[in-house]
Design brief:
Elements: E1 4-9, H1 10-16, E2 30-33, E3 41-46, E4 54-59, E5 62-64, H2 67-75, E6 80-84, H3 85-90, E7 100-103, H4 126-143
Parallel strand pairs: 2-5, 2-6
Antiparallel strand pairs: 1-6, 1-7, 3-4
Length: 155
């Protein structure tokens, strides 16, 4: 599963301050990824430890269906965004712009499960199994620190 968290640029946080609770997000500029890109209104479901998830209704300052644009906007100081940990980690390269800071680090958004759907092992072609093994190894090598271990290995 891919983990999601809240991130902002160092410049933004120096100017606006670090939120101390999910409710504090109401006082911050919010950058929203929305596949349809139609509305900047959003509800973020944030959880902490084993506590029940909190839902925070927010109005985005900026809304886009382009995840690269969202990342660049947050790097440029546009506000706080809920994004995958691996996308935020890709911003830590000096060549990509400003480094992002985890906001409310003890809180996280929902996880996104990754699945490969194939025929049963009895009817699976060898090349499909080879691809599954390659994809599993590649994802773990590139995203390993940002994935929740769970589910089955390709078999």
């Amino acid at each position: 599963s891919i983990r999601f968290g809240l991130f902002a640029s160092q410049d933004y946080l120096q100017h606006r301050g670090m939120p101390m609770s999910p409710a504090d997000l109401l006082e911050h500029a919010i950058v929203v990824y929305r596949p349809t890109g139609r509305s900047a209104d959003t509800t973020w479901q944030l959880s902490r430890d084993s506590s029940p998830a909190e839902q925070v209704r927010l109005r985005g300052r900026l809304c886009s269906s382009d995840s690269a644009f969202i990342l660049q906007s947050v790097q440029s100081g546009a506000g706080v965004a809920l994004m995958s940990e691996f996308a935020a980690a890709s911003a830590h390269s000096p060549s990509k712009g400003g480094q992002l800071v985890r906001v409310l680090p003890h809180w996280q958004g929902p996880t996104l499960a990754l699945h490969m759907v194939t025929p049963t092992t009895r009817h699976r072609l060898a090349r499909v199994q080879l691809f599954m093994n390659w994809a599993d190894a590649t994802l773990k090598a590139k995203l390993g620190a940002h994935l929740d271990a769970g589910g089955d290995r390709p078999s």
